[in-house]
């Protein structure tokens, strides 16, 4: 777990992420976790009924397909909030580095059982 009195270097943390779609927690504040993740390909359709999910693209391009809305494409430096309960599916044709923030304990695949369901892990 990151010490609350020490800075966190995002690039250094992302360099430790070795598997796609396997988010790693890098800090916690006020009950929210910031996770570093590398993505490529399509994720599963899912939602988070307990809260919003913030995506920040660090490197690459990420499209977030939304079940009942128009898809959103993000580039490096872009942010987007998927509102609670909205079904979504992140897609990245090439490797993309992303920060995700949501409430502590939220499962990355929501209530969908998948081989992409990640275990909580700090780096």
Automatic annotation (TrEMBL):
<feature type="domain" description="Cyclic nucleotide-binding">
    <location>
        <begin position="41"/>
        <end position="80"/>
    </location>
</feature>
<dbReference type="InterPro" id="IPR000595">
    <property type="entry name" value="cNMP-bd_dom"/>
</dbReference>
<dbReference type="InterPro" id="IPR011051">
    <property type="entry name" value="RmlC_Cupin_sf"/>
</dbReference>
<dbReference type="Pfam" id="PF07883">
    <property type="entry name" value="Cupin_2"/>
</dbReference>
<dbReference type="InterPro" id="IPR013096">
    <property type="entry name" value="Cupin_2"/>
</dbReference>
<protein>
    <recommendedName>
        <fullName>Cyclic nucleotide-binding domain-containing protein</fullName>
    </recommendedName>
</protein>
<dbReference type="InterPro" id="IPR014710">
    <property type="entry name" value="RmlC-like_jellyroll"/>
</dbReference>
<dbReference type="InterPro" id="IPR052044">
    <property type="entry name" value="PKS_Associated_Protein"/>
</dbReference>
């Amino acid at each position: 777990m990151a010490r609350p009195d020490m800075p966190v270097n995002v690039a250094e943390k992302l360099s430790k992420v070795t598997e796609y779609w396997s988010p790693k927690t890098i800090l916690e504040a006020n009950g929210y976790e910031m996770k570093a993740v590398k993505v490529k390909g399509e994720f599963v359709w899912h939602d988070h009924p307990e809260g919003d999910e913030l995506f920040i693209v660090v490197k690459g391009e990420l499209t977030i397909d939304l079940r009942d809305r128009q898809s959103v494409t993000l580039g490096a430096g872009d942010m987007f909030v998927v509102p609670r309960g909205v079904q979504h599916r992140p897609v990245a044709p090439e490797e993309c580095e992303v920060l995700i923030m949501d409430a502590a304990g939220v499962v990355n695949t929501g209530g969908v059982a998948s081989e992409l369901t990640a275990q909580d892990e700090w780096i």
